[in-house]
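agent> step 3/5: call structure_predict on target 'Methionine/alanine import family NSS transporter small subunit' (Microbacterium croceum).
agent> reason: downstream docking stage needs a structural representation; sequence fetched in step 2, passing through unchanged.
tool.input:
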Amino acid sequence: MTTTAIVMMIIAMVTVWGGLIAAVVNLARHPEESQTEPAPPVEL
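tool.output (status=ok):
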């Protein structure tokens, strides 16, 4: 692999893994509040 390919691979990996880590941190700080959501309608 050339140096350019390695640099681009590292940039892509940091982008993907960084986005995943940011999403996990965001979800940990602001969890989804399911108790405030209305109950689904009951079909008879």
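agent> step 4/5: record observation. The radius of gyration is 20 Å.
agent> proceeding.
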